[in-house]
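Two quick folds needed for the group meeting slides. Do the first one here.
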Amino acid sequence: MNNSTWQHPYVNIFKHFDIGSTKKCTKQGDVTALMDRELKSTVFRIRGLVPANNYIQFPAQSSNQTLALTGHLFYALFRPIFDKFFSIHIDILTHEQHLVRISLSNLYREFKVTQTSIQFPYTSPNTTMHWTVLCFDLESILLTYMTNQHYHMIKSFQLCGNMMVKNCFSSKYFYDSGLSNQKMKQSSNRALPRELSYPVGKDESWHEKYDFIMIPNSSSSIIDENSNDLSSKIGSVQVHSARDSSRTDDTMNQSFTNSIQNTISPRDNQNNWQKSIKPIDGFPSLPTMPESSTSTNHNNDGIHLFINSQSIPSNNSINDDFNFDLALTTDRSQLSHLPDPILRLRTVIGLGNRISSSTSLLWTQDGNYVLYPSNAIVVQMHVETQQQWFFIGHTDKVSAIAFNGNSSLLATTQTGPSGILRLWKFETRRCICVVRVPGTSNLHALDFGIRNLSDSSSTLVVVGHGEQPQQSRTIVCVYNTLNAHKGSIDLLCRSTTDASISHIRFVPYDSTRFLSIGSDNIRFWRMKNGNDLKSMSISVDDIEQLEYTDLQFEHSSNNKLNELVVYVSSKSGHIIELLYDERRVVKIHRLLPTKRSNGSTDKITMANGPSIGICAFTCTSNFSITGSNDGYVRVWSNDFTQVYIEAKHDQAICGLVTSHDQTRILILTVSGSLGVLNLVNKEHTNLIRAHTQNVTDIDYDDTRKQMISVGHDGTIRIWCFRTGKQLSEFTAERETPVVVTYAPNRQIFACGFDNGTIKVFELNTSIISAEITHHTKGITGLLYAHNGGRLISSDEEGTLCLLDANDSYKLQRTVAKALSTSQKGTMILSISPDGKHTAYVGPTEYVVTIVETNSLNQTLRIDISSCTLITNDRRSITSSEAALFARFAPNRQLLVATTNFKLLKFDSYTGKLLNIINNIHKRTFDCLTLSSDSQYLVTGGDNMIKFWDDANFQSFVGHSEPIQKVFFTDDNMHLVSIGDSIFIWDVLAWTTPRPGQLNTTQSTLPSKMLERVPSVLSILDNSGQPRNPPEPFQYSQQNNGHTARAITRSLSNSEIDKNTNVPQGQKKTNNKKSSKKQTDNPPAIRRHFIQRVNQSHLAKKRYVAPVNQESLKLRSIIGYNGNGRENLAWHAHSGFFAYSVGCNVIVENLNNNHQTILTGHTEEISTLTLSNDVSILASAQCSTLTNKDELQTKIIIWDIKMLHQKLYLHQSVHAIQSMAFSRDDRFLITIGDYRKPMLTLWSTHDYTNLLNWQDESSPSSYMNCLAWNSARANEFCLGCSNGCIRFCTIVEQTNDTNVRLQVVNGYVPSSISEHAKLPCEITSCVYLISNSQLVLCSTNCGFVTCWNTRTNSCLLHWKADSNEICYMTAMKYKLLTGSASGCLRLWNIENLEVNLGQTKNNDS
């Protein structure tokens, strides 16, 4: 019986290979199983910013497993996600034993064929993505686009986000889509199997609801043996439609060249929107032929993709003058769609909660704009109009910002433990690079080196604290940002100091020198040789304990360092004047308060008394400007003897920056005001005023278009909603306002304070009309009844009070302990849409109570800890939750947020549980709101906003702290969110055209996609902002897990002539002998070397030209053999660097990239090793069969000094798995791979074979790694299969040639294998440098074990990774592990010996 009969008639891949099994399937990233309402079945949603990081893959281990699916037709039932990238990759094995990848993706702009891949671009004319049946005829694809390649089987496939997928199956039969019973009887075609088809209603047409795509669209191989008319039906690739029957094939045919030359992707959607004004010209769309080649019937409904493999002309025949319009659309594309993004940030009112210095203020060169951070956002504001634009991407508070010389690049840093540095292209406000500054946290200062105003200033210095919270040391890093536009920057040097640094400035016209100041130090820095950072500090002897506040250089038109003057200000009122070149203090200025004589406002003289505390300082070519803690901004002469201007502010000055033309000063105060002082006309313009601490509550007046807010800074502020300007401010003494609400008539508002007082203010007169003191604890909730006659209040003790607003706010009723006190927030009370009922959580966190607003009489109590939901299929789901808050919806529903981040929907009349929505947020769930028609839900949590439309949502970042409240305006056109600042968003669901019609509204792609397409953002709207920041280190990485072990070999002598004629009988005999040994169950771990199958043979006749007479010389090789193991050698101190490519060893000079190619091997090199004295390099190749059919693995010994072959050795194994020199370089050990695991010991004196050893007791056991003891030259350990570690000692008897090997076995604890549920293997070993008695071993299940080499026992183990740990290396008190998933982890093992109770003294 044929072994492929089990695949007849088809294979349901998801079911047969068990998609839920981790051994047969890999689900990476955001992959979720959910119930699709349209299909009424379970589907899998794959989504993520980078498709390569979010995928479903069959089989789980694509490198050493295979699906072995022989059906040449591959079907995928999927639906792409609109305006997102997706990819489908199918790896097939040909009869010629070649691996070919066939891919379909909307990432591809054009059709492309290489020796190992075929790439099809995907396009669609509609904004509505339909469920699709995608069929690949793999055999026809190979015959059409590959030469001499014949389909054999499907090895693996990968579905990469963003898409919804129901199933995949393979078959040798073609299944026609949408066949009715009547048509199926009349036709010999096969209909889609029921379990692999889509549901169709009684009166519905399959082609009206779904799409069918065939690749290629014309093929003879898909015709069944019983079908005679199938070819006429699929003559071209098209989406079948019931309305297509009236069209001829000529009408439907599209040139595939036209399609692949004009593929539209999300990138094109951004690049072309300005040129297109038609509503149908949106992404994704298809190009069409000129009008002369199209039919007059323009009803193209249902067409999504055209691929015609039979009509690909040559490049020379393509007419560049074709006018390809975007024309093929459907009626369904005209339906309204949720725009992406649905929110656009319009106004930010806030300056940050930690306003500290002028490192956060910038002017643009033209003087029209200023930049400042507002918590996690950098705001760009026009000085005249106060219009705002935003740099969005940071996840914590922005601490410092800086421009390069020509203001083309903006650098920003954020606080927090992550140490994130972002670089932005200023013109487009696009983040082009994100860097995790190594070993740092709380970055707080940075500066660009500026040589001149037209320079791009590639040198950047960044300052932060140590990564550990208890670490107080300061870290200074210098970067070269020359390649920032490519997504990466280079770290030039790094230094650590105990001195504190608050400000840092580059020396003008020199990008290698800079100065820093801290609380009590002035330090000079200099870079030597480009990577050596040195510093020196100076002290001011005359004054003790100066606290420096700002640093400025004197304006100079030349770049002479010997004339450069530095000014340093201090809180004590002293300004230190230094001469930079001499590193010495020239003069100390003490600034005294001023007084005016004889009442004159013109003459200002100095007064006696204490000095002025200077908080900020700047200077121009003619003046010096100081900002002091008394609130004055003073303009001095350069010698500080005369004051020209004094400007009084309400509180201390904390930031001063002069414009480039030196005519205006940007002033920041600790009270939250930002203004501009014009030095010419002495006018002051206020740009913004804001809360200086978190905003706790806000309310909106739709009549006046005003907002009122309260914050922890103790102020009550009223804002203009349209402009964001502050209209008035109330300051409370000895009490802090916490909640606020407008009365329905909008003439008064009530404010609750933290001491339990409630005050009612009149807006017109700003007087307090009533003061209520019924509560003794802080107020938590306030709301008016709809008629304004009742005021309900709650406090921290859970007391609920009802007040009569018409009768001087007399107390009507009090309910003690009515509310739960376990949760605190601003959404304590919620009033129903009709105003008759009020809901709250209480008296416990498991109960939600609804009372009458006018009497507080209880009408309904819901116990959410025991609610049961009956689903449509009669299943019951019980909810046992604790409530956070409750909120009425406009449609009589009651929404309850729970501590498990779920949202429960109740009927507010009956208390029936209607629905449960899981995973609203991940860490916190702070607030929610609904639009007035209940169509959209907005939630706040995890410092972000989620905008929900049914089960779909969009996330928006910008807040750096918990969101206290979010609400729609009365017209649903805007959304307001508060927390660290006040954010006003435009809701684009009502006013913005669907994404297919791009105009001046915001158009945004995920930022990771934007980094891949730098040209996209050059056309973004000024207000367009990325919603999701790109993650650090993601822009320079190209993730492709399938190619890690499939890098093409370099050409070797065995590949000189692939067409050498070999007798058929001899070829079969050799293949039979070799294949039998090479297919002996290779190990499933990535650490073990697996030799690639070599189909080439050495030429029988070869000519080798004499030296220096070659007509062709190999100059350089680009590549690296990723299939090798430990095939890279690097000695950091000497700079020696070597690696293998195919059968060649490359020695590369890292300074100039010059390559020296060492030839001599004829097969793939498996491993390299370098002697400890860096004099010898050893390389080992895979085995070749001799005339006697004996295995011979060649090992070449290279002289590093002369870079030539010294000698070669032979070992009778299939391949060398690992080899290493002993500590004193007297011995060399080589171990064979799994097919013949033999250990060989060589003497490096004359390279004689001292001994061969193999474990005869366990023939199935093999060795994966070896490690020499760093302290003892005769000890080493072997990591083996079956969880075995072998501790070996070389026992020398009379001389070096008479040795024996002493081996002691140890086994990993059985609990590790039981935990991993798979056989345990040792994959890497390393001896600790600090204690040679300890050796660390990693395993294939992610554990690291620690062994005592004297007792041969396992002392401890820990879970270090979720995947196989392939390599480890130890430094002093540090351990670096690398896993098969590409994850590197650095471990601190300093206390390892102490925890094990061992001494730190090594034995002699």
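Then this one, please, same format:
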Amino acid sequence: MVSDSFEEEQLTLGSLDFDQDLLAIRRNVSDLLKALKTLHEELKTLQQEEVDLTSLTDVKDQIIHPQIIDHKNAGVRAYVACCLCDMLRLYAPDAPYTLKQLRTIFGLFKKQILSLKDREQTYYNEAYYLLESLVQVRCIVLATDFPDAEKFVTGMFEDFYTLNKTQGTHNVELLLTSILSQLVEESDIIPPKVIKIILSHLLTPNTVSNIINKGDTPMITQSFKNPGFNLSKAICTENMDIMTRQVNHYFSEEFNDVSKEEDQARLLENLKKLHRLAIAIWKAVPEIITNVIGHIEQELLTDDISARLLATETIGEMLSYFPSRVNFISEHKTVYSSWLTRINDKASQVRNAWTESVPFIIKNRNDVSKEVTDALLERLNDIDERVRVTACKAFGQLDLQTLLSKFRGKKLETNLSNRLRDVKTLVHVQAFETVGTIYNMAYESLVSGNTEAEELANWIPSQVLKQIFLADPEINSLIDEVITEKILPFDSDDSTRTRRLLSMINSLDENARKAFYGLPVRQIKLAQYFGVLIQLAKRYNGGTLKDFEIPKEQLEKNISSIIEYLSAVFPDKVNAKSQFESFLKNNNSRSYDLILTCLNSESSYKSVRRAIDELRSPKKEYLLKNDKSLLLPLLYRSSFIFFNESNVLPTLNICKDPQMPLFKTAHEYLHKISISHPAIMKRHINGLTSLVVEIEESRLGKSGDFLKAIASLTSKFPNTIMMDDNEEFFRALKSIALNGSYAEAEQAIKIIKFLYSGNLDNKDYSKLVIEIVDGCFKDLFLIKNTPVFVTRLASLAKLCRHLPKFVESYSSELTPFLIKEVLLKNDTISTEDEPEWIDENEIDETTGEPLLENEILAKSFALKILVNRLIVLTKDENAMVLATPVFKLLISLINNTGEIVPMKLGSTPEYYKNRLLLTAGLLLLKLGKYPMYDRVIRPSDVNRLIHLAQNPCLQVRKIFLEKLIFYLTSEKISFRFFPLLFLVAFEPDTELRRYITTWLHACFQKQQRPTSATLSSIESYKRMELELLLPRLIHMLAHHPDLFDITDVNEIRDAKVSANCIIYYLSIIATEANISYLYYLSQRVKQYSDVLAAPHITIEDATEAERNIDRYNETGSEGDDEREVDTDRAFMKAKTPHEEVDEAKNPENSPSRILYLLSDLSSLLIRQFHEIKSWPLSTWPGKRSLSPDIFSPMISGVVARQIAKTVYLPEEFNSGHITEPMIRAALSKRNFKANIKAKKTGTERDLALGNASLREPSSTNFSKKRTGPKLSSKKPKEKKSKLSTLQESSEVRRSGRLRDRIVNYSLVLDEEEDENEEQESEEESNSDSEA
């Protein structure tokens, strides 16, 4: 039975029919090819295990014969290879050849497969068949049994990877992958070189291909496209366990070899290659590199900085590759935790590497901890500037969605804002780039009302613009660039661009708006000078004059003067000057024309942008490379970009719809542009007047901003609007002046005033004014405290100031009414829960009505009417008759902190008193602008203004100090008011303190600016010596209402508080150059008597005494009151000999002892400054008299010598242990230059960051029992002093560059009040308020 079944099976098996003798026809190539082809076709049809192997025996032996297998003909070899592969398939699993024969066969196979690189060759299909068959049969595993298997396998990998680079067919790549994978799978030992080949091709084009190159085993060099990547990845994936062992073994050996390297540079380079390879393997096949990551973790914790740095970079890049088949954070928790600790690595390089990788991790992953995002925020404050630069760049690399989801909040705003004013150039340059990028990304979301986007980016324009106050030329250039290119980039659509501009303005805070609206002041001035330079350059023509009317020497001198001025706006003035000269030498007429287009106020926005783009185009050669770096920043600053004629019409369209979100901002923008660029608005005057008429007729909106714009225009162009052509507009003006809001009424009167001044011959204007005046007085006394009443008073205040002759006939009844019925009566009584301040614009949410009552507004306008009447009488001989009661009223209001109504009539509300106090103080400053009235303001009156400068109400302090700065900047008031600003040493509000401190620094730096003949020819300013403020500041502190009170004597405490203020002054004013001069002035104080000093008298008594002195000097008789006579004598400059002798005998009891105590204190502080700063302190050679209004010279040398010998400062100060720490604390919190060699302290971190915390030494808490701010010998009620009410210490961040930088910047305040006050309002509002 068995024999029968075997025979039956033999009968069913197929057999080979081929019967030709291949060796017999071997010489006939054609016949041999036909025979082999026939053989291949027949073998191909036979199935494994279904063929009679005995029928294959003869052919099997023939095709392995050397004369067949090694035949010279390529076709013969191709068919022989296919036949041999078929034989192996049919004989499988037993090979029909010996190992030696198999080695020859596989050599042929490899050669045929390598021919696949040429797809055009004749036998390509046969080679492909061979490769495919090898994969299917898996006969390649036989190669692992060769004696030289390692060499053969290595050669296969090398050749197949090379082939894969050139053949370019995906199917071939898959087949090659399968063959190589089979070799890896079946090999007992994989040659190390094979592992290197596989791993090296996992490297991506972003990494280096050479892993390690040592000895005689060079690595494969990777092509840019790296076609072997897929082969290696597939091999590793299909043989995961094998490759895991092989990779771990490979890295263990390599790490061991690297550690033995003695050359540190080579060791580090080899280690870097291994780390790059580890990253590549992680990205391709993360499962096979587990143990290697463990080794990298050890490097994270080593003491070797280079190893930690590499490990940090490597783990960071692994983490950033996501999604991955292996979650690094969950699978390698300990490694991740160790990597997190590198946040605070002591080496800045490691922290920098950590920071560099974080943005990609945060952007690509959604499973990182909040610890990582918080740490990135903290890196913005890193002590090392490189880390801060990287952190700034990191935030610019994040996409909007990532920023919105993970980085909204105050911390990002604070940290990035600090970096904008970083002392290191690289940091603040990158910070500006980053914030601009973030805003540009977020703008569309901001416009759509996305609250998250607002939280993320709405602060950016404000913070960018506020850096203008740093007054740094380099920072200013960055501001111009980021605003022009990022925040407000080019957009050819006028409507879209204008909306973006208004949206940005709408987001600005108060100080940023001041900065933004200050840009036109600077722009106009620079445009004028730049334009003149280009015109002169055209004449100069590169040295070949076109116009011989001006001598060449004069022309060159004029050009040099303007270049000197323009160079001052650049950080490197010398280089800027050189580049200007190079630009003029280049003498390109096209560039001249393009620049003039940018500087022309009539150029459209598109024209300006096209001109700028053409100038900076790399394809054009109008400008040299250096010229672009100079002229483009200057063009950004001087061109008509933000305030352009093309923006007006879209803005007017927005102003027509009160429901538009940008409605108010559009009004504001029109007003500002009309002030700074009236010529631009002139072309749109009809549109403005039409809007005013429409609003007045419909009563659906407010026309105040339009009226402001028209007022600004008419101030320059009084003939722009003619009454005959605009009757409806003038009727609207009259209606507004009588029945509109008080703000609108003021502007309406202002417009009428300008038009009247320009048309004096037209009686219609006089008739209009008379009608308005009569309308104001009609039933005026019957409509008290109504909105219309306030409007009429506002109109009258303006009429009294600008058109007084039309109001004078009513003055006899108006003045008594205002004083008796408005000022000295309260219809509103104080309550317990009342606020200290109500803004004019605050609205009651329930009723929609203004919260500020008409009564207090009426009181304010009543005061303005009284003062405005005085202003127009400055040249009248009888002015003082009217001025005396007004001055008494103002002084009374200030002295009583806003209260003038008798207590029996009810207590005045606190917010009433604060507003009246502020109004009185501002009006006193305004009167101080006029010499006649300035002489009336006594030193004690100036001291009373401390009530405003240090008022508990922030709004009072802020408004008063800002107005004071404006007047001092424009040199409108006396220098004696200046010391009030140094009381900001006690200011608790950070922003206000920073604002005033910045201005003081700028003011002093301008004083220090060296004058030159060329500069003075184009820019002149009145120099003032801020050093002379020291005696005045000492005198003011001696009479401070909260210091050295005779009812609560504590000189140590009060001297310590005074020291804070003097230290603050010295920190701004003291330099190595003037320290001797300051010391002289401080000691000079003890050579004078205090004019205001008298024992046991109040400030009121002192004021009366001063006035009696004047009467005595004028009439030769003293006052009738005996107390006044005694007080006068105490103040008289000519003292009696008896008094002199007494003072000489008892100098410690001198009436001026507080003044002398503070003189000693300031001298001590200056000496300590000299010692701490190592400045030379020598005798100042000159002589300087002190101000006679507060200091009277001693006529007796005996008294002078005795006082000079007497030390009035308490003994506790002699050792310096009280004041020296205060000075060091103040100085250590300032940012000094990098080259200052100082011992490292705990504050070094903050100093390096450029935003060191400046905490003034805490004042001693000296709350006193007092009655108000005035000195009194009576026992007062309990009440805290203003210095106690204010915080006694504050923290302020200040930029170190302020100290040593020459600054020149515009500080523009909202001077609507002054615009309305004077006929020359244009000059006030447009003046260049340089510090």
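Slide caption for protein two: Confidence is low (pLDDT under 50) at residues 206-224, 1011-1023, 1094-1141, 1231-1331.
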